[in-house]
Design brief:
This protein is of the alpha/beta class. It has 15 helices and 15 strands. The strands form four sheets. The chain has an eight-stranded mixed beta sheet with strand order 4-11-10-9-8-5-6-7, with helices on both faces. A three-stranded antiparallel beta sheet has the order 12-15-14, covered by helices on one side. α7 packs across α8.
């Protein structure tokens, strides 16, 4: 049909094609979405000329939005599960068979039938759940703010504790989600190298002096991606630096319940009475990725600001999710789940280590004693981004090591994860990865 021609009405088209009016309407909607026809209310639907561009022009938005804050490439891989046929060697959550799914389903069914599951909780969260979380951090229930997961807690904490344009100091390498959270909050990022004992406190002192930063982001226990555990001496030193500088430490305690050889040390929060440490915890990592329940623990005016600002975002986490979390954490199944998880994750870590040990191009600098990840070094002449993309083409998902550094990586690394893949998948994944590197 030529441009400008009016299409017959829906009734006529229905009779011609022996189709229902709903089918014809859907077809017209599809043609409209493709830019082939144009509906004019009160007049009808008209053919658009093939030479006529129906594509929207979004060019004005780039000027209106200003400079890009969040690294889209880094963001595209955060939480990327991949396709069922791909080998998940870079998935930061538990495999389905490691999650207490049946127990959670039973709890969820009970909660859904109860009135408590549908009652609006206070914006800070369920009083009982806050009390339960506070006990582990030797905090008061009023110091706890329930939030929908650890990533949201991280974004919210950095946005509230620092003003746009200020600097946040991070250990390097670090969790890419923390980099994205800082970018989203409009913060500058200063990186300080970390080793097997955590962030280098001598260099941290220099960086705090240079930048006058008021916020430091750390993962003291089983850091992502290296698995490092901060030593007792470093823990005392970072708290002392925060006190001396009048700074906050945002403690990402995501792996507290994922210790293998040993449990995680006490949170930094417990070593600080004056509110310098703000801790973040999550249930999505040790229990289930769908249990989007986390918490921010903060004392003093900082805690008050976080609670007040939270109300500006939303009025609380789903009471259904909070009740499921409360009942699971209060049950004997929670202790049994942690025990099973420690054994299963230990076996999977060892299976991944064994697969990597047989490679002549992959090297593991340090044995992780907890968490979900293995930090793997590539040959010096390799490019982590190229390798990770080529591995994906071969059906293996691995973490591009450059995403874990704020600035240029000093050496090429990959992050491999042992929480989601089975031992046979790990062996096959490492075999394909080794072939890609060669």
């Amino acid at each position: 049909m030529s441009a400008g021609t009016r299409l017959p009405g829906v009734r006529e088209l229905s009779a011609r094609f022996q189709a229902s009016a709903a089918t014809i309407s859907n077809a017209l909607a599809e043609l409209t979405a493709r830019g082939l026809v144009r509906a004019e209310p009160g007049r009808g639907t008209f053919v658009i000329g093939r030479g006529h561009s129906s594509r929207p022009d979004y060019a004005w938005q780039s000027q209106a939005l200003g400079a890009v804050r969040v690294d889209a490439d880094r963001a595209s891989r955060l939480g990327a599960h991949g396709q069922p046929e791909q080998l998940p060697l870079s998935w930061g959550y538990l495999a389905d068979e490691l999650q207490p799914t049946e127990h959670l389903r039973r709890i969820g069914a009970r909660v859904a039938r109860s009135a408590r599951g549908w009652d609006l909780t206070p914006p800070s969260g369920s009083a009982e759940l806050r009390r339960l979380i506070a006990a582990e951090y030797r905090a008061q229930p009023e110091d706890v703010q329930i939030v929908p997961g650890g990533q949201q807690a991280l974004v919210f904490a950095l946005r509230t504790l620092a003003e746009p344009g200020e600097t946040v100091v991070m250990e390097s390498p670090t969790y890419p989600g923390a980099i994205l959270a800082a970018q989203s909050a409009g913060l500058r990022i200063a990186a300080v190298p970390a080793d097997a004992e955590g962030i280098r406190t001598d260099l941290l002192a220099d960086e705090l002096e240079r930048t006058r930063a008021r916020v430091v982001y750390l993962q003291p226990s089983f850091a992502n991606p290296t698995g490092a555990v901060m030593s007792d001496l470093r823990r005392r030193e970072v708290v002392a630096l925060a006190v001396a500088r009048g700074a906050f430490i945002v403690e990402d305690d995501w792996a507290r319940h994922l210790g293998l050889e040993r449990p995680a040390p006490a949170p930094l929060f417990t070593a600080d009475a004056d509110g310098h440490v703000v801790s973040i915890t999550t249930l999505a990592k040790p229990i289930s990725p769908g249990l989007r329940v986390g918490a921010i623990i903060a004392r003093g005016p900082a805690g008050a600001r976080l609670r007040a600002s939270r109300i500006a975002d939303d009025l609380g986490v789903s009471p259904l999710m909070q009740e499921v979390a409360l009942e699971f954490l209060s049950s004997s199944e929670w202790a049994r789940h942690r025990k099973r998880l420690r054994i299963a994750l230990g076996d999977r870590r060892d299976a991944l280590l064994a697969a990597v040990a047989g490679s002549d191009v992959l090297q593991v600098p340090a044995l992780p004693q907890g968490g979900l990840h293995l930090w793997v070094r590539l040959p010096d002449d390799a490019d982590a981004r190229t390798v990770s993309r080529a591995a994906q083409t071969e059906g293996v998902l691995v973490g591009d090591g450059s995403h874990y550094f704020v600035d240029e990586p000093p050496s090429p690394y990959l992050r491999l994860s042992f929480g989601a893949a089975s031992p046979p998948q790990m062996a096959e994944g490492v075999r394909r990865l080794e072939s890609v590197v060669h």
